[in-house]
Amino acid sequence: MAAASFARLLPPLLSLLLLAGAARGKTVKRDVKALNEIKASLGWRVVYSWVGDDPCGHGDLPPWSGVTCTQQGDYRVVTELEVYAVSIVGPFPTAVTNLLDLKKLDLHNNKLTGPIPPQIGRLRHLKILNLRWNKLQDVLPPEIGDLKKLTHL
């Protein structure tokens, strides 16, 4: 009798699971584009773990290492990017400033050089910005002042 009850419940349960998976949605194209630009500039140290087309994960593929996403309506957005201590060399990756829902950006202990771009002011939701132990210029752009939610610099 228990087996017959389970057999009746199985189709509705499977339907619910499929709907839950479909509801996850895809990552916003703007974020996918930005992370692919960052991926192209980082080199193999990070990129080897960034596989698949969707940085937030899709199907059997997990989210890219250091990328945290949040569901917003039908889509997922990138809310955290933590790529630290992997010897990223070169200028601050400006594509980061296209991740408009970012709340945490942690690029500490790399070899980033030059200025922090003024476009950093676009990250209006940013709460945590950790760029310590890099070789960035000492001057903060005035646009940092536009980050009203920033609590940790």
Automatic annotation (TrEMBL):
<comment type="similarity">
    <text>Belongs to the polygalacturonase-inhibiting protein family.</text>
</comment>
<dbReference type="InterPro" id="IPR013210">
    <property type="entry name" value="LRR_N_plant-typ"/>
</dbReference>
<dbReference type="InterPro" id="IPR051848">
    <property type="entry name" value="PGIP"/>
</dbReference>
<protein>
    <recommendedName>
        <fullName>Leucine-rich repeat-containing N-terminal plant-type domain-containing protein</fullName>
    </recommendedName>
</protein>
<feature type="signal peptide">
    <location>
        <begin position="1"/>
        <end position="25"/>
    </location>
</feature>
<keyword id="KW-0677">Repeat</keyword>
<feature type="domain" description="Leucine-rich repeat-containing N-terminal plant-type">
    <location>
        <begin position="30"/>
        <end position="70"/>
    </location>
</feature>
<dbReference type="InterPro" id="IPR032675">
    <property type="entry name" value="LRR_dom_sf"/>
</dbReference>
<dbReference type="Pfam" id="PF08263">
    <property type="entry name" value="LRRNT_2"/>
</dbReference>
<dbReference type="Pfam" id="PF00560">
    <property type="entry name" value="LRR_1"/>
</dbReference>
<keyword id="KW-0433">Leucine-rich repeat</keyword>
<dbReference type="InterPro" id="IPR001611">
    <property type="entry name" value="Leu-rich_rpt"/>
</dbReference>
<keyword id="KW-0732">Signal</keyword>
